[in-house]
Design brief:
Layout (H helix, E strand, L loop, with lengths): L3 E4 L2 E3 L2 E3 L32 E13 L3 H10 L7 E12 L4 E14 L2 E6 L2 E12 L2 E11 L4 E3 L6 E4 L5 E12 L3 E10 L13 E22 L5 E21 L3 E2 L2 E2 L5 E14 L2 E15 L5 E13 L1
Parallel strand pairs: 1-11
Antiparallel strand pairs: 2-3, 4-5, 4-20, 5-6, 6-7, 6-8, 8-9, 9-12, 10-11, 12-13, 13-14, 14-15, 15-18, 16-17, 18-19, 19-20
Length: 319
């Protein structure tokens, strides 16, 4: 792909999807852990519950060989990305105990040896419906739409164009499940597909499929109470909850080949698999998840750089 350096951002239920393997397509589907680790097996919020969240994700990109960089300079192609930071702000709200709506918007920072760039990504709105719930086993359906709020502009580090977003309205569907045992063990997962329509200048930036399975264990839960005696001898009880959870699982993402000016880019598209390890600390209505993602499967089409490690940190506040 000679004309564009592409960074496609998709947001799924507060999960940021942004990936970048190659010099010709600096990114596509992202998301590393999802936020199911905060829910203790619950797929939807309680009625009238509001959640605000901010996730920061770092993604390293491994340049395969110095020969590739030398060939790029000779052919005056795109500058390869070295790393990406994605900051995603999200909100969720429980309309009922079975229906939750969510929105999330990312801001992206690109880093290369020749300079940096940044830009606003695409806004994602999505709804989740808990269709089945029995014996601590839940199945939910999702539907959503990615809105073209992302920008297209000239790059700061070469003569190509940076595309943050897809420039199109793209529908999404998903299936989620969870199973909880006792009060401290949970298995959660989801499968999601985004149908990408033609975007900037009629270009096609690839359909995306996401798979995610996570097993979590609550190591510790503490309740701290303080009894206060007033002048009229009545008692007031203040309760503070602390929870510490660890989790691990598998995350996979598939991206279709990109088509630009009617020509399929053979050096685009892939399937990636990651081992996810993380922890989550909750204090009352606050939650602080941390996820480390290690690449274990890299099935890249054509000549592309490999995905490196990913580190994701979140701050979540419930009301």
């Amino acid at each position: 792909m000679k004309k564009y350096k592409i960074l496609l951002i998709t947001i799924l239920f507060s999960v940021t999807y942004a990936n970048s393997q190659c010099a010709c397509c600096a990114g596509a589907a992202t998301g590393s852990s999802g936020n199911f680790n905060n829910n203790n097996g619950l797929l939807t919020l309680e009625k009238r519950q509001l959640v605000l969240e901010d996730y920061v994700e770092y993604r390293n990109i491994n340049i395969k060989s110095q020969h590739i960089e030398e060939a790029r300079i000779e052919e005056d192609e795109e500058t390869p990305l070295k790393s990406i930071f994605v900051n995603s702000l999200g909100v969720r709200y429980g309309i009922t105990d079975k229906i939750t709506i969510a929105a999330s918007l990312p801001y992206v920072f690109l880093h290369t040896d020749s300079g940096n760039d940044n830009g606003l990504g695409d806004l994602m709105v999505i709804g989740t419906f808990n269709a089945y719930s029995e014996n601590n086993f839940n199945i939910a359906l999702q539907g959503g739409l990615e809105l073209p709020t992302g920008i297209q502009k000239g790059s700061n580090f070469d003569n190509t164009t940076v595309v943050v977003g897809s420039g199109s309205f793209d529908p999404m569907v998903g299936l989620l499940f969870s199973k909880q045992w006792e009060n401290n063990i949970a298995l959660q997962g989801n499968g999601t597909f985004k149908y990408t329509t033609n975007g900037f200048k009629g270009n096609y930036y690839g359909n995306i499929s996401i798979q995610n399975v996570t097993f979590s264990y609550r190591i510790k839960e503490m309740k701290k109470k303080a009894d206060l005696i007033s002048n009229d001898t009545q008692y007031k009880i203040i309760e503070t909850n602390y929870r510490w959870t660890v989790f691990g699982g598998y995350y996979g993402e598939w991206l279709d080949k990109i088509r630009e000016d009617g020509i399929v880019d053979e050096d685009s598209g892939y399937y990636l698999g990651f081992l996810n390890l993380g922890t989550n600390f909750n204090s009352d209505s606050w939650s602080f998840p941390l996820t480390l993602s290690l690449p274990i499967i890299q099935d890249m089409n054509g000549e592309q750089n490999d995905a490196g490690i990913r580190l994701r940190i979140g701050v979540v506040k419930s009301f």
